[in-house]
Amino acid sequence: MHLKTYRTSILLGVTFTVLLSTFWFLPQLAFIIFISLLLQLLLTPLVDRLECHLNRGLAAAIVLGTFLLICLGLVLLVSSTFIPTFTRFVTDFPQITEKLQQMPLIHDNAYLTDEFEQFWLELKAASVDALKSSLTVLLSIFSKFIDMVIILFVTFYLLKDGDDIKVYLASLFPTRDYSRVLALFNRILSALRTYICSQLVICCLTATVVFLYYTARSLPYASVFAMVSGISEFVPVLGPTVASIFGILLTATVDPWIAIQTAGFYLILTQVNHNAVYPTLIGKSLNLHPVAIILGIILGGEVLGAAGMFLAVPFIVICKLVIEDIYKDRMETIKKLRASRWLSKEKHEDK
Question: Transmembrane stretches, by residue range (predicted)?
Answer without folding.
Answer: 12-38, 58-78, 137-159, 192-214, 221-239, 245-269
